[in-house]
């Protein structure tokens, strides 16, 4: 791994200034009915890297810059919740080098978020992480937990990171939670329906993505 990569300076999540034309588009679209929850899946990076003849790590870096732009757009449109699927448990099957590079990128990003925590307080931004924390590298897990703790009382905007996540793992988590509640006599099996199950999902207390 090169020193350039280790010293790579990631943008802050909201470092994006719209052009005059983009500001005009924001003003026009702001008068429309806008979604309350936007979900983004980061997919196709390796295909795009092959098509453009770029190293995959360079594409991952560019994608984080695009995330900063996407978060800024949601801020301008006053969208209260955004979920970004940034790393699947299935991605652990990729090469050791690619996974390691991705972890370095996200560690740098999370550290920058901690450093800029005052911004989150001033703008009422809460950050949450959905996924299997047991699979996260210790330093990344520590950063994620610190970010959640530092922003937990903010309520104007919610940013969800699906990190070390799969839908199968989430369903397993919700099922185990309900099973344990039944075992502890906190509820009966007859109480379980689709609405209760939905409440046990990671996004159970938020809006459904639109």
TrEMBL record:
It holds the Pfam family Prenyltransf. The keyword ATP-binding does not apply. It is an enzyme of class 2 (transferase). It catalyses: n isopentenyl diphosphate + (2E,6E)-farnesyl diphosphate = a di-trans,poly-cis-polyprenyl diphosphate + n diphosphate. GO terms for cellular component: endoplasmic reticulum. GO terms for molecular function: ditrans,polycis-polyprenyl diphosphate synthase [(2E,6E)-farnesyl diphosphate specific] activity. GO terms for biological process: polyprenol biosynthetic process. Keywords: Transferase. This is Alkyl transferase.
